[in-house]
Batch of 4 targets.
Target 1
Amino acid sequence: MSKRSPKVRSAKLARYWYYGLILLVILFFSLIRIRLRNMPLERDEGEYAYAGQLILQGIPPYQLAYNMKLPGTYAAYAVILAVLGETPSAIHLGLLLVNALTTFFVFLLTKRLAGSLAGLVAGATYALLSSTPSVLGLAGHATHFVVLFALGGILLLFKGIEERRLWLLFWSGISLGLAFLMKQPGMFFVLFAGLYLAKREWTRPPDWHRYAARVGIFLSGALLPFAVTCLILFAAGVFKTFWFWTFSYAWQYASRLSVADGFHMFRETSPRVIFSAPFIWIIAFLGLIALVWRREARAQLDFVAGFFFFSFVAVCPGLYFRGHYFILLLPAVALLAGIAVASARASLGQLSSSSIPPALPVVFFMGAFAWSVIGQRAFFFQVDPREAVELLYWANPFAQALPIADYLKSHTSPGAQIAVLGSEPEIFFYSGRHSATGYIYAYPVVETHKYAFTMQKEMIGQIEKAVPEFVVFVQVPHSWLARPGSPQAAAFFSWADSYLNTGYTLVGIADMLSPDHTEYRWGDEAKAYRPRSRMVIAVFEKKS
């Protein structure tokens, strides 16, 4: 026993060392997020923040704000706002905590599958890739929350399988069900975990009662969050609206693009994602090879290959391939990177005749990691929060939404309603004023789908009935994405011009001249000002 004590102490020390290193990685990227925590919200964050704000006011989702996303992220934002405050800084600090916990989950999952070194590499990889501008990693998108609950559920699934405990399988299902509730692509992680459990529980000859009990308890847990949500929304009187937006319209939206369109968008986005850290992605690709090349890695082939496949499929619904969708793939990429480095190090260690030091794969990963951080040093360490959002989102009025919302807040009473003709829900959140219409995005009313004109009629009717004190007309292409010659867009803009000319007067102009310069005019100066750019936000006040 005494002879083994030094080895036991050495193993414990190594374990603490790896835990300490992953915490340092988390701290490093947390400091970057803290530095940029005051970045203005982009429109998805504005949607979640406004919906979360409404929840805290006792107003259920889909009553005053319509969108096709499931309400889990709204509830998550409501928690962040309640605990940390109703500011962009609070939202980004909440995201910091989500990202830190997700990074730690990636470390634990990979450590369980391939050892501590692999876990450390995977955790560092996820922390880096999930913070890059290419995936809009510093914005609080729903994909961050999907990944958090999916990984938590998978870790519980492993423990439930190993310890043969039904309650762990039940809570695994609940966590994965919450991943789906954050956003619809979370369903692919539920499907993956269910298939993996079914495969692991299958025996020959099968014990059907035990098999049905274990798989059934997992599935019941996975269904419970959605079932409870439906009951809550039904009791709140918004179930019909919820179902239309999150399933009927969502299906129309997801089926708009052709395969050729989707392939074009994938070619546009994926190089930006990969070339933000190209050597890290090369290492991850080598991890795929290691699954076949190294016997120890092949033992995890079914899990790793399945996890990667379903993670990629989760990126694909609708074939839009936007940058932040790739966050759903990053845990699988990080896992492969960890397997690649750990497998290469172990293989070199077994070759006594090799002149290549076993530590070389680790050194190569460290170099790739440092190269990727240095390559993005301007964003990580130099630009201020406002410059960061303009660097990421120029041609979107996210920074301009703040002074516009301040003006609206100072010129209206707390109970006033405003309308935004465009897709900038962050204005409602900043101003603390309710929208005169549930259409907080303009996209659906100018898109080409069978509900477009019905939606237009409803949106127009809601605005005309409310007679909002102020109307913000966002004349910025990215706030509409209307196709040239679209009859839906032509009809809506014709109504908007007539409505504003009849009942409203211009009181504010934000003229977006360049990424770092916007001209603001208020009152009589706004009426006399002639915009010099094609990107203008106009504020109108109801006539006396």
Target 2
Amino acid sequence: MLRTLIAVVWAGLLGGCAVAPTHPALWDQPLPPLIPVREFVANVEGTSQYRVSPDGALLAWKGTSGLKPAVWVKTVASGETRAIPLSAQSFVWSGDSRFLFMTVDRTGDEDTHVFAVDTSRSDAQPVDLTPFKGARSGIQRLVENSPDVVVTSNERDKKVFDLFRIDPVTGTRTLVAQNPGNVIGWSVERDGRLRARSVQDGEAGYQQVFEGGAWRTTLRWQKGEAWRIADFVPGTKSAWAVSSRGRDKKALVRIDLESGAEEVFHEEAEVDVEQVLMSRRTHAPLAAYSMPGYPRAKYFDAGLAARLEPLSGGAPAAVHVTSMADDEQTMTVSVGTDRGWKYYLLRGASAAPELLGESNTSGLESSLAATRPIAYTARDGLRIHGYLTLPAGAAARALPMVLLVHGGPWARDVWTYQGANRSVQQFLANRGYAVLQLNYRGSTGYGRAFMEKAVAEYAGRMHDDLVDGVRWAVAEGVADPARVGIYGASYGGYSALVGATMTPETFACAVDVVGMSDLSRLIEDAPAYWSLDLPWLKRYVGDPANPAQRKIMDAKSPINHVSKVRAPLLIMHGVNDPRVKFDQSERMVAALRAAGKKVEFVSFQDDGHGNRKWTNNLAMYRHAEDFLAGCLGGRSSGFDYYQLGAWAF
């Protein structure tokens, strides 16, 4: 038995050696060394999400302990560290710097819990503050100078979220406000007082303020408009907000919460203002961030600009303050490029920045590729922006290419490297592919009009934008038209299926990750907490309860077009996915196989709509590189020895 096992292992090792490129355009290209898959998904040197406590005495960050995810805590003065063995999605410090609050989704079903760790005790273990079965909870607001945290949870009614204040010392939960069934957002002051709520009214909405024990309606917004409060202005009935009310692009504004009147403080001509850094001391904006192509920051504080601007080294970079101590002199800063992130601690205006850590690929920069912004005109005249990544050292001459489609579709691709689950462009470029990422119509960041051009355009003009991008790459001499693959997750996975079924002449193969194959079932099986967003979603996708619209949705569903498939498909899906149910892929695979089409199907246990477990990411990347090598002719690293022990994690 042992001899047989050894033979099987050796067969896997010897049979899984690296595969050289078979596409002629790569034969004489000076490609960089192959980066093992494990470096992208399980590099134990990689760290992220550094946060300093409000008193400046403690640091926390995400890393690994052994090969398992952990949150690390360090006492800045002594350098003493400890690992908290928990796979947290995100975390924040309590207002009194004692507790670390973490959001955790153990199985990918998005029933997120809020945990607390008392960092004043070296033996303290994470405590679940929201131990609700089948419920989704999240952090709404920290309470200044207090251990308390304000959280949202749909434990009572799965469709909507109530508001609670929790004392982590005792675990006591106090109901702050019960959702009447139409509240999509709560606004809480820094002292923990509930100030306002946003109410959904179809696709429009209105704000209500809480006064005298009752709710009173103030300002309103219309279909397609969006806004969020960045901070309240003390002693007034106004706030700083990022808003597109009455305009196309989101801008940083000061808004009168009674009348709704807005005064624009900062805006960008080409794109939305996407993020704002606010002062905890003055409640005024310190910086605004946008991404027209390369990252852009606008500083409103000269002293802060003097400290941060040198960190870019005079080249494009996304320089973001990720946390600040109460004194606003001690802060953590992330510096991102197209090849990775570095993290710094800044202490005092005159102190030199201290390098805290780097993302998992920062040590591999010489083997990674440059990403550049691109733009082209779609067939109907709309200007489309995106990014092109070529293999490091390779000339752009009819290369095999992967069209990498972002999910959402209400999201966007950016220039900066995005970490383990979004390092796909660098992974594919290292394998020898040109990688094209497009912010097709419907993507966020380019204003309301651009986004709304996607209404009723699933498998229509949204897909035309992708095909037009491929044609642009072919005309530029970048892509071999006979060797273009399409790869995407969620909406991107749907795009991959649309490409394989409805424009099969364009793509040599397709990789679908957690993509939908049946639009009607997507709406009918939507999670309960999507209920208030369904009018918005139906506007773009359609309403299956309407027979005429259902007929159109069925015509745009890849599962009804499997007979047109010409090329092989790779379909991958997490079994616990609550958004795009696992059966969307199961049914698509069954239909493809019944039609005699070539399809490989991979499922991920204990994961959902996007993998959180490195072992599943290892499997995803390995299947993808072998599959694409077979249909496009790039390289594959072959068997990764981490696969031998992945079962243990």
Target 3
Amino acid sequence: MRSSRLKAYPQLIVSALLLASAAAAEAQSVPRDRIAGSLYAQASVVLRGSLSPLAQARDETGRIDGAVTVHGVSLHFGLSSAQQADLDELLRQQQDPLSPSYHAWLTPQQYASRFGLSTADQARIKGWLRSQGLHIDSVSTSGKRIGFSGSVASIETAFRTELHRFSVGGASHFANITELSVPAAWSGMLLSVRGLDDFHPRPRLRDASPRFTSSISGDHFLAPDDFATIYDLKPLYAAGISGSGGKIAVVGQALINLSDIRDFRTAAGLPANDPQLVPGPDAGSLVLQNGSEDMSESDIDVEWSGDVAPDATIEFVYDKDVFDALNEAIEQNVAPVVSISYGICETGNSTQINTMQGWLEQANAQGQTVIASSGDAGAADCDSSGSATASHGLAVDFPASSPNVTGVGGTEFNDAGGSYWSSSNDSGNGSALSYIPEIVWNDTGKQSGTSPALGLYASGGGVSTQFSAKPSWQTGTGVPDDGARDVPDIALAASNFHDMYLYCTTNSSGQATCDNGGFRFSSSDASTNNTLTVAGGTSFGAPTFAAILTLVTGRTGASGGLGNVNPRLYQLAAATSDVFHDIVSGNNEVPTASGSSIGYSAGTGYDLTTGLGSMDVNNLADAWVPASGSGSSSSSSSGSSSSSSSSSGGTASGGTSSGGGAFAPALLVLLGSLRLLRQRRRQRA
């Protein structure tokens, strides 16, 4: 009998191996075909939400000539319901330290093999585009984005619309004037058609008066050295942690002059370290626009991310639309951390948001952390910051409002009555002496001298209407019981009226604003001579926090990316008392035309103005992984990284890090079978 039982063991092992192999094969299965009907039939459906809310009939100036070629148009397809459930479960497991898929990030190719479009569906879609006289320009790795170009006439016929020109605020734009129609066979698959309008998002940069000239005026400003002192980065630098080996992707929609970046680093006393320039698919249409808001925004994001992590590689990904640049940074997995200082209000943009939310989930699945500014119009994100009053009600900014993104709000230093600044600058042009207490940034309506009063200038924050399920990780003291995603998550200095940030750029006259190795601008014009270029806004929070996370990764020794860091941030806020500076004073309220105000006030713990608060970066890095831990495996809570999670039991397949990879679930099956064999053998002995 003993002999027969022993003969059965190899058979059981073989069975276990077959189960393991089947599990691995299931994890790597190719996407199923989803297009059932003919794309060439007359049946079509209206693509709801395919009109830009900024293309108003009152601004229309005429139809575009049909012979004009439109470049940079793209179709964006979503996941099937089964794929979405599988991705939700994967994202949950990737942030669960007890899961074999913990931090087992996917490559773009692995993501495509599991969550992309099938090869047959891609071929059908490309065939339809060609049949409409359109040219295929690019196809993403996953096949979910297909770029094309063609004449206005061909596009109008294919999508049953018209393209017209608009004049808005003195600028010329174009857009479709009716919602698009698409083949009925795409129903439920196609999320959006991008590129049929050129209403691009605005940066979160807030310019400030050039009167701030330090020793000349007595006012303070933020040099890189000041930021390092106030937020306690210097112990990390002293320990040799400066971003070496790390990468940060900064996305923008403008060309930059490398000379401005070099000027900034020279003025800040930093070593040379040029950013890597990564053009997106349609970046060839960009022209250099000195002095533009977009160029200044790009300069700020590149300069300040490279300041906080001075030895990191900054990958500047740019395209004609910053959201396309974001997509490129994710599709190509350019860097573990991605910074974006642009956004749109949630209201009226659900189609764009649904499309981009898929990108952000892909980013997290690949281990990428996405950081976004929370907006600069206080609690009224749909109103322009230049407006005197809010007229569109409460709203928050996307992508900061995505549960797959860390939203960064704004604070202002409350340095009255304290000795926080030195009377002279050090070699890095810094003068801050220590951490400076902070309040909520709200410069709305403030005025200096004869300058016009500021409009709606305050930290963006509030309750999302697009993401109406509370993320499982967003808990703790002060977190509202509102059943929705709340914004922001953290905050950093943002005032454009008090203690602003220095940066270097090229003005509209083609002159570099940082001269002779310093931050000052030399000019023959007495009104601008010897001044500084300064700004504020939550634009500064995204690149600086992206760099902070790069330092945290260096401190912990973690390999690969961190993915969605929100679960860990809220866990740390609940478990520690020295990581976050709790901002308890101020509000982001803004006035309405009726004379009332809308917004939120700061309070103990989390609030809808500054989130968990600002941070002591050295303490953040120390606390990220407990001292007894040997790696990153204990660094995250088990909360879901998306707005909803599924219990569908989708097999978690892996990436390239140590979390287990695609074979991990299969290996567990094998190990479980071997344990069962041992138990049976002991029972029969």
Target 4
Amino acid sequence: MITTNIQKLLSVLLSIVLFIGSSQTVHGQQTANMAPDNGGGSMAPAPMGPADLQALVAPIALYPDALVAQILSGATFPDQIAFASDWLQQNKNLTGGALMQAVDKLNVDPSVKALTQFPSVLDNMAKNLGWTSAMGEAYHLQTADVMTAVQTLRAKALAAGNLQSSSQMKVVQQSPQTIVIQPTNPQVVYVPVYNPTVVYGYAYVTPYYYTPPPPAGSVLLAFGAGIAIGAMMSNSCCGWGYSYWNCNWHSTTVIYRGGAYYGNPAWRGGYYGTNGPGGVSHYGAAYNPSTGAIARGGSVSNGYGTARAGQAYNPSTGTVARGGSVSNGYGSAGAAQAYNPRTGASASTVQGSNANGNWGASTASRNGNTAYGQHQSDAYGTTGSVTTSNGGRAYGASGANNSVAVGQSANGNKYASANGNTYSNTGSGWNGNSNNTSRSSSAQWGQGSSASARGWSGQEKTSGSSAFGGGGSNGWGARSESARGSSSFGGGGGRRR
């Protein structure tokens, strides 16, 4: 039936978009090296050994200390790394102070903001999200071990004669266990380029990581263009810049603004939950190395009800999706959004239900065309309507004893269906296929004087429309309601994580 199909389309549209962006992510979650925790029912990664940690940090161990600090912390936010890299690609026109001001407004961690000063590093982390995820998980769970692994590799590179001071960076061995790397010029930072399988005197192979090695015949340690961090920070807009970061090799932690910094406190690279007198909470994060998609979500339940929220991002397509729901004894409500900045496609929906029925409204846009829809079902029946910015529209209703649907395409063709009878008007008058009425009666049905016969005033009269727009609404007020509902679950109006 047309009405049923319209209702299904409206309620399922955003679910499909979200599923495409995140279903493979969830099922692609890495489960290797996972071990039970201390009885809480969740799974925690088994600690990595020294050799595995050294292989993991090999691509960045010879970077300047402050940059290492930013990378270790930023890696605990792999979804933000992917988002920031994509944002940087979409805003190549911004430079200098304008870029810093724009980055300062992004809703991401300070370490991720700082990494936007080093586009090549951020790009490598985004293209190697499997490595980024593993690096963030290792730093979060084995902070001291990761810092030790960095120092171990620096000592090996120094012993092999491949790490020494130059015009780009200053290498100081403060003790047998501590080698500090700083820019020779504090105002200019150079990012070293090297092959991790050669520079340490041992062929380290880093899992989930690939970056083109230096050209054949070049020195073992090369450098890209210098990053003038002093000039970037001269406007003093941003307290997250390069100079605010460092590594404390004695306490084996990252330092940010003078204090120890551990990055994302919620990142586990997997799933965990807690139970307590106040209720139950769960959090999950997942990454799919085959698609690059990453997702995370959580839920909280207590005596008042349950709330859920989630986000997904696919860097290969640029698609961002987020949604949430709340349910309690009075009913449930949910909202979701999806957006692809590369194609301009976007969609949003808000749905609700209680003991009296269910309702919802959705919006979808692409290439300048937008479709708005709504539906409502209760004990008396179901109503649904769709309208598009190019002139198409449709309305359907069904009850215990009858059903009706009317529609008009963008080119003006009209279609109708009532109780099993179908009618069409493509410009030469109404034609019908009826088991119960004559051809003349079908024409009368299509051209009758009643509002419902003409097929459009039902949008104003049905109780379903007032549920979305309030009293006196024409039924499309749900567009603003949907926007408010979606942003309340997504954490704000801008594209996030």
